[in-house]
Amino acid sequence: MKAAEVMTTRVITVPADRPVNEIAKLLLEHRISAVPVVDADGRLLGIVSEGDLMRREDAGTEPRRSWWLRTFTTSVEAAEDFTKTHGRLAREVMTRRVVTVAEDTSLAEVARLLERHGIKRVPVVRDGRVVGVVSRANLLQALAAAPAPAAPATAVDDATIRRRFLKTLDQQPWRATTHANVIVSDGVVHLWGLIPSEEQRDALRVLAENIEGVRAIEDHLRLQPKVAYYT
Fold it and tell me: Residue ranges of the alpha helices (H) in 126-178?
């Protein structure tokens, strides 16, 4: 799916001269985490998020840098901090380097951008103008609407299931510390061996669940005993 297929098209935006207190009211009223800042032609100038409004001098939440951090803070950074915490208008507190996507951006790429930049929503732009917003909620809606995986048209034999399981397992970065084996009988995957953590137990079960033809999973895995080292 693409961004255009899930994005919210009725986007709440603000002009650059919108007062900060009015932006805060908009976020609360519409239960959103950010608003794009646009010019008279609808072109994106920046974005004001909850994070931009959290640390404010007038709210008593202005961050206080430790003395050693102030030592390494440049005058440019200090000036930017002051503007952010004391600014009264959208243009003064907004984030200018905005992460955006196009209408044909895949949802997989949108999800990666949200995770990589630690943001909750991303504007969708066309020729510099905001035409929509994709949020985490939109991604969840797309997931909820996705059809359930279709049952395989033909049965998969046990040997094929085992071969696919082991091949996929060998490709995982956590494979080196997992001493696990798999036996497949009538589509039921039996997991055996020693594992170092419950997290790897979960990973092995999920791996098996995603192999076509698997009907059930029997977990016989055992946790490796903790070894104490004395000096």
Answer: 136-145, 158-170
pTM, to two decimals:
0.61
Place of tokens 């208008």: 89
Q: Is 173 exposed, middle or buried (0-12, 13-18, 19+ CB in 10 A)?
A: exposed
Q: Which fold has domain 3-145?
A: CBS-domain (3.10.580)
Please enumerate in sequence order all residues whose Cβ is within 8 A of that of 52, keeping only pairs 6 or more positions apart, or say none.
Answer: 84, 93, 94, 95
* pLDDT digits 0-9 by tens, 133-180: 998 888 888 888 777 666 555 578 999 999 999 999 999 988 877 788
CATH topology (fold) of 158-223:
Histidine-containing Protein; Chain: A; (3.30.1340)
Q: Domain map of the chain by residue range?
A: 3-145, 158-223
Which segments within 77-196 are labelled E, that is strand? 121-126, 129-135, 179-185, 188-195
